[in-house]
Design a protein that fits this description.
The chain is of the alpha/beta class. The protein has 14 helices and 17 strands. Bound molecules: pyridoxal-5'-phosphate.
């Protein structure tokens, strides 16, 4: 792809070639107004069929943390394809070791390799139930964990995700996530005394859910598709304390927050918390399908038996090679540090924008995982879904690919560029975003 310094929009979006392409396939053109359809990509840039070039401000949904087609990742994939594509355990062993090194916890670990974020949630649930011989799993409202039955069952994102597909996996209980901007208990932190966790300990555990039968608490350290909701600082340490009190395993779901996204290798590190199991996906192999369920080694052995898990395509050499290269790039190019540094700058600018714009109700996030919650106005906090949609659509027309998401009918702009982004590039992107917001407000 040619080198550019700023977006290049030369047709309306979607352009004539994209329209023609969609028309031939009988697909609606509307979709491409909000979601550009790239046919080439490099670094932070994406190019469509008509030659329009966009900034990818969502990293392909938190997949290309090292940027699209990082040369080292591409080289590793090509070299691997020239050697063997299917069937060696050597790279898998190497990747197991590397993942054990970079994930939190200074203890022996083991890893199984599902093929998707959904699959790794299933693996986490199975591992926790199998190793503890306890039936119940605690998850949280607002969470999105994926589409397979296990992942769907721990999710609690949209009623339509489950409508018509039930019944889900039994034995899953959802607790309220600490969404302080819209507290479900209408309390304020810290005066709330973490009522969301009090509910679990003082009500659930004392009425319908015996804690000694709970295998695990499966949580996102920052709740992703719900609107990048960051819990208050005492939430995770308190959750960990509750788990320790009852022998419950802590499963950190870091499919979206892992690999430097939040300015630490893994988001739980912001709260110095070490989980028993950590679930990884998305950015792990820069776009080659791979996920990982990393856990304490002792959890994978029980009474002389081993935890059973295996797929035909699990930990394929191509995906392992891509993952090993991805981890190397994150280390060599100090992308965790860049995520923290450029993310800090980006957040500051978003906070300034919040002062200027009535539709930005809240700015939150860590590193380069940032969200701006869009509201009708700051006083009512009424969700601004139409406004968010318009902002994203206008931004795309100007060359900035950004989307919104949110649980409970809310809408948060999802800002998560590749971790290689520079401050200058952030300025270009935010100037476009601000223009789109101003136009929408008018
Ligand atoms: C936090 C989280 N977990 C799990 C998943 C599911 O991953 P996949 O789509 O790879 O199955 C997603 C996908 O968006 C996610 O954001």
């Amino acid at each position: 792809m040619e080198k550019v310094k700023s977006p290049r929009i030369i047709t309306e979006i979607p352009g004539p070639k994209t329209r023609e392409f969609l028309k031939e396939l009988g697909l609606p053109v509307e979709y491409a107004r909000i979601y550009p359809m790239p046919v080439e990509a490099e670094g932070i840039w994406m190019k469509d069929l008509d030659g329009n070039i966009f900034i990818d401000f969502i990293s392909g949904r938190c997949v290309v943390n090292v940027g699209h087609r990082h040369p080292k990742v591409v080289q590793a994939i090509k070299e691997q394809a020239d050697r063997i594509i299917h069937g060696t355990g050597l790279l898998r062993a190497k990747l197991t070791k590397r993942l054990a090194e970079v994930t939190p916890g200074d203890f022996p670990k083991n890893v199984v390799f599902p093929l998707s974020g959904s699959g790794t949630n299933d693996a986490g649930i199975k591992l926790a139930r199998w190793s503890s011989r306890r039936p119940y799993i605690i998850a949280f409202t607002g969470a999105y964990h994926g589409v397979t039955y296990g992942a769907l069952s721990v999710s609690s994102y949209l009623p339509r995700m489950v409508k018509g597909y039930g019944p889900n996996l039994p034995g899953i209980y959802h607790m309220p996530y600490p969404y302080c901007y819209r507290c479900p208990f209408r309390l304020e932190h810290p005066d709330c005394d973490l009522q969301c966790l009090r509910y679990m300990e003082d009500y659930a555990f004392k009425s319908y859910l015996p804690p000694e039968e709970v295998a695990a608490v499966l949580f996102e350290p920052i709740e992703g598709d719900a609107g990048w909701i960051v819990p208050p600082d005492d939430w995770l340490p308190t959750l960990k304390r509750i788990c320790d009190d009852h022998g419950i395993l802590l499963i950190a779901e870091e499919v979206q927050t892992g690999f430097g996204r939040t300015g630490k290798w893994f988001a739980v590190e912001h709260w110095d918390t070490v989980p028993d199991i950590i679930l990884l996906g998305k950015a792990i192999a820069s776009g080659v399908p791979l996920a990982a369920c990393v856990g304490r080694a002792d959890l994978f052995e029980r009474e002389g038996e081993r935890f059973g898990y295996g797929h035909t395509f699990s930990s394929s050499p191509l995906s392992c090679a891509a993952a090993l290269a991805t981890i190397d790039v994150i280390e060599e190019e100090k992308l965790v540090e860049n995520s923290a540094k450029v993310g800090g700058y980006l957040k500051k600018r978003l906070e300034e924008m919040k002062e200027e714009h009535r539709v930005i109700g809240d700015v939150r996030g860590k590193g380069l995982l940032l969200g701006a919650e869009i509201v009708k106005d700051k006083e009512s906090k009424k969700p601004g879904r139409e406004e968010a949609r318009e902002i994203c659509q206008r931004a795309v027309q100007k060359g900035l690919y950004i989307i919104h998401m949110g649980a409970y009918g809310t809408a948060t702009l999802r800002i998560a560029p590749p971790l290689i982004i520079t401050q200058e590039q952030v300025d270009i992107a935010l100037n476009i975003l601000e223009e789109a917001i101003s136009e929408t407000e008018r």
